[in-house]
Each structure stands twice: as structure tokens, then as C-alpha cells.
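Instructor's aside before we start: the two examples that follow are unrelated to each other. I chose them only because their records fit on one page, so don't look for a connection. First example below.
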Amino acid sequence: MTRVACGLSGLWVLAWCAAACGEPIDLQPYQIDWSQAEQSAVDMSQYLDAPAGKAGPIRIEGPRLVKPDGTRFRIWGVNLTGPECFPPKELAPRIADDLARFGVNCVRFHHMDGTWSPLFDKTRQDTSQFDPAAMDRLDFFIAELKARGIYTNLNLNVSRQHKPGDGVRDAALLGYGKSATYFHPRLIELQRDFARKLLTHSNPYTKQQYRHEPAVCTVELVNENSVLEGWVNNRLVGSDDPAGQSTWRPIPVSYANELTDQYNAWLEQNLAPAELKQLRGEAGSDRVERLAPREFGKASKLRFFTEARFYMDVERSFFTGMKRLLADELGVTAPLVGTADHADAYCAYSHIRSNMVLDFIDGHGYWQHPRTGQDFWIANTPMVNDPLDSTVTQFARTPVVGLPFTISETNHPYPAEYACEGIPILTAYALLHDWDGIYWFTYGKGRMQEPDKGWRSSFDFSNDPVKMTHLAACAAMFHRQDVSAARQTIVRVYSDDQITEGLRMDRKGRPFFDPSFPRSAALRHATRWTTDGQASPYPDPAPLGRIESDTGELGWYDADRQQGVVAVDTPQTQALIGHVRDGRKATANLAAQVDNPFCCIYLTALDGEPIARSGRLLLTTTARATLSGFAWNPDRKTVQDWGRAPTVIEPVTGAVTLVGLQDAGRIKVTPLAAEGRPLEPPVQAEQTARGWRIPIGTPVTTWYILEPQR
């Protein structure tokens, strides 16, 4: 349990946390002041090419997203959700400025169609018309983003819930309608109508319809939605229980019956008479009932594979139909993506294959996604101690040979105590795998957030000074591709039978569902999969205590001792992440002796030079961020008190030593406020026999500008 004593002056907060090491942790106020953000000494907008789309739309060239001239386009993005997509017009330019300073070059507009979002006209008894005022704010915001070099990802169907006037059967039981949106004619009709209205809408501030807007770099059809995943997770059985939650509830009984009708009509058209007779014999009826997951194990190959093939066909037919509408009829210029591979606990290759009819592949994944709601629970353990189940290995199962791959949702959700590891590790390994983009979930309200309420969800991070520090710092690494792409790509080849049979494999096979593929390979090499061609020989498993990339730039150490450390060692970016206190790991130019049992020390050049010759460096030192008064229950997995503002951090204390700086006569060290504003006085660096020693922890900060003087 965490106790927080807060002085009336608000100048100090001391929290005694029953951490794994049993040591007290000193938490100090450190809150982002967005009104001072323009004074930030950190500005990553140099990596943006404004205005977005100035030479034409983003396109696909082979396995890459590229600009019109063929140069690589990588997405360093954030999600905005619901009302956050429609900021007040007086704030929109400031939010766009903020995002540009943090290096963000794309915003995913997510949950615009939710009931809590202002998009639909609330005076109507249907969801067929957009609210003009909301659209005006959206248009203005997108124009402001475009002017700063920030692209837009438009989501079509995410969380739309229908009203009586929509003519949707059993709408009150449908929730978000996951799975049903693929096969029910009225739901498909409404999605097509939504797409036409949104994409043919003309933005008065850019003078472009969204279908032709070059600053729209992606149109995403549905969110975390799969018929196959619904089948495997028992949501196609049909339930009219009104108590179910809206996101993952089973389809209503009438929809389940409709799907069975469609299945039997499909059987008549796609099975040979002998096969149909055999299938009906096994089912014991001329009307073949669909399988529930509890029946998978006993079903014959014919019955299981036939039903799986039907669901694959439903998904492909939906995606193909939407592609015809968007690309052929409407002439949408942006690349199209279907939906994310969003659940690594089932074998999703069949679903990924359905998405391959579109332009690229996408994934969602979180480190220890919490169980939310009244029974909130989070595992709250460090990822550095579990490399084989890390977000890196989760995402590595999805990319396909010959197609770009992006991650449109990921996070280390709050209140995880080890979240400082999340952004730096995944960014580094995304570059090793040569992926095309990451959108962090979710930016949150930022300037719109009431400062006295802190942040309100496990996913909002725009008022989390640790995550915002890394959003900016890692932007430089990502945009420059400081981590080299892997020298070797391991290609996994799976037959149709393998990917179909995988749907009923035990979940212990996650995430690859390939017993012969060592999960450590995804931390050493890139990997892709395909259904044809020549598979690569699989490497032997790496020892858990030492997993190094084939480039020599990334290493994952000591997880076997539950003292995991990830080291990043490139000419322009270096980092030590995890249990770094004892100083047993160092990089070419970075060593640390810190007091904290868990932290991230990250160093990157800001002037394009290697660290050894750079005249301007960004040093980040991060540990835990939380809210004043936050209190765990004794299990440290459930919450007693969610806390309130001000935000507090665990300062990283001790010293960082910079080694091998060429011809540095002295180093100016400027600590920064949470929003990046310089603080006084400067920190005094000391030259030692080993290098330049920089004391850290006073003043309280997560980042410093270092300026070697030559």
C-alpha cells in the first residue's frame, strides 16, 4: 500500500512504496504545464515535412509506405479518441503545435462514432447525420495538423451504436456489433453510407474532400473486429442478455440465426454434394448448426475447416466490397487497412490473411492490458523480465512478407509501475524489424484536461511526464532509424491447413502458434510470414540471460535472474532500460550509477551527429509517474485510491557518465520542466578519468539538454 503525505504548499510529496526491493520511493511533484509548452527546449518538428501531403498522397511501394517521390514514410503517431478528435477551435492550433514539437507526424482519429463523441447529430433518432458544429471543429483541427506536417488516419467503424431510426434489428442488444458488422446487410449498408458521407465531405479549410486529401494517409475500415476471433472466443453463439457490455458482447440470437442461415446457403454453393452429405451426416441434420468452441476438439477436419473457410470468406467479402467502394467508386487516394490483429491469445493467421486483400497489415497489443471496470486488475510486472512474452514478440507474429506493417495501438497502461520501459524498448525493436509505424494509445486530452483531476484512464498519457518525455525523445530515434534493420529476416511459411488448424490450438502456443519457432528469434532478427515460398531455417533458442540482435545494437540481458536490462547501443541513440542500478551494463558512450531499482536512462543526439561528436544531446532519466494520493491494495495489482493532481514522479538519482566525447572542454547541462521548459540553475558536470560525470535527481526532472562545448 502506498501512503502519500502532501504538504499544504504542494512543494513536496513523499510516498513510501512497498516495492519489490522493499525500499522507500520518494515521489516528487512534476506536472506538465501546457500553458508553458511553447517555451520547450525540445522540438522534434524538424522531422516533419510540412504541410502534410504537399507533394501528393502516401502510397504503397512493395513492402513500404512511401511519399510520392518514393522516399520512406514512417508513422510516429498518437491516437485521439471520441471528443478529443473535436477540440475547441481556440485550442486546436496549440494542440497541433504540441504534437509537432513531440515529433508526431500522424493522428489516428478513433472512436469518432461513439455515443460519447459529438460526431452524430444528437437531436435525431438515428445516426445518419453528422453534427455541423462537430464537423467544423474536426475540419479545422485536421487543417491545423496538416499545416504542421501531421497526417490523418480516419477510422470508419469503431464503436457506433445504433438508434431506433437506423432500422437495425435488436439494436439495443447489439452493442458495437463486432462480427455482425461483417455479415448483416443493414449494418454493411450503414457502414457504406458512413464512408460515403465522411470521405466525400469537403473540408472548407483545406478545400479538399477527404477521399482526395493527400494529408489523409490511412483509412481504416473497422476496429478490433473479426468474425474468426468472435468464433474462437464464443461470441457467435447468440445471446440476448441485456447485461452484457457493449464492446465484446455476443451477437444477439437473431443475428446468430441469420449467420447460420448464411452458412447453410454458402454450403450449398461451395461444397461438393458428397462433402455436403458427409457434413450433414456429422451434424445430424440437413441444417448444419455452427460449432461452439467447446465442440472444436471433437469436430472432424471437414466440419471444422469448412466452417472456418466460411468465416474467412465472410471477412474477405466484406473487405473486398469496402475496397471496391472506397478505391474504385469513391477514388480514395489513401492506403486502406482492414482491421488490426488484436488478440495474440488465439492463432490469428486466418484473420490476418483476410486483411491481405487490402494495402497493409496492422496490429494492436499492450503490455499487461488491465482488466478494467469495477474489478480493475493489472499484473504490474516488468517486461524486461519477460522478453519472450514482450510486446515485441506479440507484434512480431503479425507482419506479412511483401506488405507494410504498422502498430495502431500500444501502451504500457497506467498504473503499471514499470511503464518507463515501454516506449523506448518497442521503438528500438520496431526499427530492428523495419516496421512502418507506431501510434501510441492514447494521447488524451492534453491541454483540455482539467489539471486538478490528473489523468482519467489507464491509457491517456498526455499528462504523464514520463511517457511524454519518451514520446519526444524516441521520435528522434524512430524518424532517423537510429537502430539498423535486422541483417536477417526469418520467413515463416504456413499452409492453408496449418493456419486453419491453428484456430483450435491451445492458447499456450501464443503468440506464434508454431512450436518449432523460438520466440527469442524475434529479439534477434526480423520475421515475417507467408503462405507460399521458401521458409527460412529457424535459429536455435537464445539463452534467456543474453538475447542480442544480429546487428549488435540491441541486447536483452539477465531476464533469467529476473533482473532484466535492455541495452540500445547505436552511434546516435543509446539507452539502459530496467534494472540498471548496479552499473553492470554500459554502452559505448553511456554508463550509469543510480539509486533507483528500476529506471530508464536514454541518450540521443539532437543535431544529427553521433553522440561522440554531438554538440546537443537529450538525456532522459525516468522511473515511475503517478498521481498524488494514489494507493495500491496490498497485492499491488488492484487499486485502493486512484489519486489526484498534481502528478508526481520518482526522480532518478545518482549519476550518469558520458564516455568518449571527442574534444569536449566542458558540458552545459540544462534540466527541463515536465513540458520541456529550461530550469535554472544548470547542473554542474564533472570531468573524471572515465568521462563526464553528471549528477542527476536535483532538480526534479525527467530530461536534460546537454551541450558539449568544443
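Example two begins here.
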Amino acid sequence: MAASTPALHEALLHAASSLRTQRVEELFDSTSERATRYRCSAAGLTLDFSKHLLDDSAWQRLLELADIESLPEAFSALVGGELINRSEQRPALHTLLRGTASSQHPEKSQEAQATLTRMQDLVQAIHSGQSTGCTGKRFTDVINLGIGGSDLGPRLAYDALKGFDAPVQAHFVANIDPEDLDRTLAPLNPETTLVVICSKSFSTEETLSNAKRASEWLRSAAQPGEALGRHLIAVTTQVEQAGEWHIPPERCFPLWDWVGGRYSVWSAVGISIALGLGWSTFQRLLEGARRLDEHTATTLPDANLPMAMALLEIWQTHYLGANTHVVLPYAQKLAHLPDFLQQLTMESNGKRVSPKGQPIEHDSAPVLWGSAGTIGQHSYYQLLHQGTRSFSADIIIPLRSGKGDIKARRALAAHALAQSRALMVGRSAEDARALGAQRGFDETTSRQFELPGNRSHSLILMSEVSPECLGALIAAYEHKTYFLAVLLGINPFDQWGVELGKEIAGQIRELLASGKSEAELDPATIAAASAWREANAD
């Protein structure tokens, strides 16, 4: 870790060694107030970490770690605009987009507010019918073209919060595979469809490829030129290039270099959320995140929700041996949350060297995965309960989940809480023998019914899947990711690991087109490219 003392590291190792022989349910028996002690709340969220293999001694050592690594000061540096993205010499001020610490950054805050005002004006003009397509028809659909942070965040928010009376139906296309766009366009009418092109550089290959094909489709309803621009919005820093697509300046919204892509849902990247759900919903999303920022800035580590999440991850991965983290939202509305968090956490903290270029001597971010809870129960929960892999988990439960069938919602909550308890208690050898005997198994073969339990996990309770709670949840994971990076001693705001594949793709594209490449490629790649060329010779 970045600066922790050898003595504290040894103390944490000793605490982990002592706890490995204990069981979580026994820790509950020995501490009557455990369920309330290992809990913190903020902005409509409650983190219950009482089911982690953790005791007071280990928790105090982790709080010492937070103090040594100066996590509160690190958050002040983040919102204060210090150049914490050291490799690119930039601040990471995504929190400013939701109004946090705006007085510290008057110029940037004014720019952000001016952009929000322009977004609001355009959204309201589209919803009112003041701004229409080239044939005068009102817009009924919007397609968001982006990839990574320009897709995953808006996709998550829209799907989580959409209702049956959305002012405009939003669709999201990210894959360069033409099937993704073709399937989206098939039921739509180009006369009533709006396209948002999200690309900071206006050169992202996947996004620009889809944008060119979408523009050709739009031309079936619009004449080339200014009329086409009425169907397009750009989120980019390259206004001049957007103008070449006939997108007027008032429909171009900035992405600043102090906002990373995977932290950009709060920026103009979120315009598809506002178009699909209404401006007030987008504002409420920002407000929920701002409330979580305020909690993080003003709360000591022992009750600080995202700091606790980061400390628990260090505890699980560095001291208890977990190498994956599974996110299990018990709400279909949050089905895209694991996808969003995969980019947020693994692109941020999947690093092997420090900002000074020194190799990291420990594991960095765990592999993150997951899906909507009850679907996973009939898929991979078998591995969670009886597999040999070590993991930690977040089980996310909205307390209020809509106005649907109360019996079905009660069943959903029962499954969530049952899985949490099953992960903790498992099934003992004695109970396994009894179950085996009922089914005619001998003592040895009855062991297949044993479940070890003692699987550490957190419960995250949401008041409901509202814009405010969703904004707070996303912000909590953002800050957890940042605090984990501080503890690991890495920069979470660059992503050099994604560059190499792009470079090689350019070399292989030449090979696929002509059968030749100036680059030195391996025989297997050349053979696969030849097979592709042969299959597409027609």
C-alpha cells in the first residue's frame, strides 16, 4: 500500500490470521450490538458490513490505515482540484458537475452551470415541440452513440429510472458491430429520431462509425446540410469538427479534460437521460450525488460510507485472500449496475505500477462481476455457496421497489435476505449428514450437501430506486474507487492499458482490407485474418 507502516501491515496480517478460524455468526453471538455497530448511512443508502469476517480489533487497524493514508485529506484534494491525475497533470473534478465545492472553482463552476442551462433549454424545447425534426414532427426517440463512460452511465440511469410515460424513448448503441445500430434503427422513424454523438475527441472509432451510419439513415428523412443538423447533438470538445456534420454550435456541449469518461454521467453525456426522463429527473440524480459528496467530505472514516467500502475491499483482497468482488442488485432496474461498475473500478484501478513507475508489489483492483440477484441465483450462486474461489460481495436491496405485486416484491426481498444469511451460515456437516440420510446417502457422500458459509459480504440498503438514491449510489462507488486507489498507491484517472489494442487494431484493419500489413504480426493472427477475408470475399 502507498504509505502504511510495516507495523500496521503486520498487525492487519495478524488480525486476519486470527479471524480465519472464526465464524461470522459467532461474532454476532459475542457482540450483541454488532448489527448496529458495523453500519453507516448517507443520502438514502445504508451500508451494513456486519457480515464481514471482521472484529473490532481489525476494524480499528483499518481505521488507522485510513488515517495514515490521509483519506479525508485525499478527498479534499479531489474536490479541491489538485492535480491528482498525475500522469496527465490534470485535476479530476467530476464532483464539480453536481455543485460540490463550486465556490472553490468559480470559473469552472460557471462553465458547468452555463452548460447545464443550455442543456435544460434544449431538452425543454424538444419536449415542448418547439424544437422538431426537419419535417416538423416532434421527436419521439433519441439514440445515444457512445462507448465506455459515454454509454454505460447514461444507459444505467435511464434503464433504472424510466417509466411508462417517458417524454422521449432513449436507446443506447455502443458496439461497432453494425448489428447493434441496425437493430436499434429498425423500428424507429428517422423523421422523429434524434441522435446524440458522445465523443470528447470526436474521433472515437466505434462512436464515429455508428454516427456515420446513423447520419446516412437520417438522410432518408432530411436533406443533407442544415436540416440534418436538427436531428443531431454532439457532446465533444471538438466543436469545429462537429460543425462539419452540420451540428450547430448551440447543439454542441463540452466535455472538459478535467472530467474522465467513466465519471462523466453528470456532464452533458447525461443529456440522453434528461431527454428520456425529463430535466427534473436529471437534476435529482445530480442532487443525490452531491449529498453523498457532502457526507464524504464531512464524516469521519468510522462512519464514512465510501471510505468504509474501500477499507473493506483492502481488508478482503489483501488480508483475507478475495480476488473477485461480485455485485448483486436485487432490482431489475439496476441490472446494468455491474456493467457500469466494471469499467469504473477495473479501468480505474487495474494498474501494475505507481504514478512514479514503480512496480506494485501487491494485487490492485479485484475482478468485478455480477448481475441482477435472482437471475444469478439460478446461474452462478452455486459457485458462491460451494465453490473453492474466494470472493467478497455487495448485495443491494431497495427497501421500496415500486407499486407492483406486493407478494412478488416480498418474495424478491426474501430471496435477497435469504442469500445473505446462506452466505454467512452455510450448512454444517451435521445438517448435511441429516439431509443426506433422508435421501439415502452414507456419511461420506452426504458431504456434498455441506456449504461452508462464512462468505464475507455487505448489504447496501437503498430507500428506493429514485434519482436521488441512484445518484448517491453511483457517487459512493466513485469515491470508494478513488479511496481504494489512494490505499493502493496508484492513479485511478488514466487508462493507458486501453491504448495498445487500438494501435494494433489499425495494423490488422490494413491486413483485413488488403491481405498485407507493414506491421510484424504473428502467424496465428495472419491465419485468422486470412480466414476472415476468405469468408467475406463476396
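The mean pLDDT is 94.
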